[in-house]
Amino acid sequence: MKNKILEHIKINKEKGKKLLSILLDPDKLSLDKIQSTIKKINQQKVDFIFVGGSDVKNGITDSFVKKIKEFTEIPVILFPGDFSQLTNNADAVLFLSLLSGRNPEFLIEQQIKSVPFLKESSIEIIPTGYLLIDGGVETSVQKVSETTPISQSSIDLIVDTAVAGEYLGKQIIYLEAGSGAKKIVGKRIIKAVSENLTIPLIVGGGIKTKEQLKQAYQYGADLVVIGTAFEENNNFLKNLE
């Protein structure tokens, strides 16, 4: 079914059912560790596996996703740092536009570069407005994109940027504090953005405890992404039960 992953996210939003994704970075997880990692993910209530990073080397993503698919039926969604990280082996791609920045390379240029591949691909394309929020540390996204994250105190600007993304036709808004963030996206931000959107809201970056996860859900996140916490401790998911 066309757009089945996006529809699944939307239907669960309407039902009030919260979703969880684990983010795996090909630069941080070697191929020989994938089987044991996926085994632990399969044992938990994980809805999606995101794959991507800000500085993944050419060609790695394809073999990385192919290996993941050997060991799980969980849908794999690309969270690419650039167009070179695309692969037909995934189920879908977050077609990201970095709305919080003003670098044309990540607003539209990377998207244009990806078109020849995506036109010939069968993977689901999910238009996504991506907002980088200050997490208290310079992240790899910030370095690679050469953009400044939005201050957590600028709630009106964050809301307006997210709503502009919806008006532009984005199907999902992603609030990201960045990998290894010292500060997660604040609850007031999540609540304000959620109340002003009609489309699903993803929140990620720095979430390392059950309380932080529950807070993100409570204040309006429809899907939460766990990355660094799982990288540092593959048993982290057990603490969420």
TrEMBL record:
What UniProt keywords are attached to this protein's entry? Answer: Lipid biosynthesis, Lipid metabolism, Magnesium, Metal-binding, Phospholipid biosynthesis, Phospholipid metabolism, Transferase
Entry GO CC: cytoplasm
Q: Per the UniProt record, which EC number(s) apply here? A: 2.5.1.41
Cofactor(s) the protein requires to work: Mg(2+)
Q: Which Pfam families match?
A: PcrB
Q: Which organism is it from?
A: Urechidicola croceus
Q: Name one GO molecular function term.
A: heptaprenylglyceryl phosphate synthase activity
Report the catalytic activity: sn-glycerol 1-phosphate + (2E,6E,10E)-geranylgeranyl diphosphate = sn-3-O-(geranylgeranyl)glycerol 1-phosphate + diphosphate
Protein name (record) = Geranylgeranylglyceryl phosphate synthase
Which sites bind Mg(2+)? 25, 54
Family the entry assigns: Belongs to the GGGP/HepGP synthase family. Group II subfamily.
Known NCBIfam families for this protein? GGGP, GGGP-family, PRK04169.1-2
Q: Which domain of life is it from?
A: Bacteria
Q: Which InterPro entries match?
A: GGGP/HepGP_synthase_I, GGGP/HepGP_synthase_sf, GGGP_HepGP_synthase, GGGP_synth
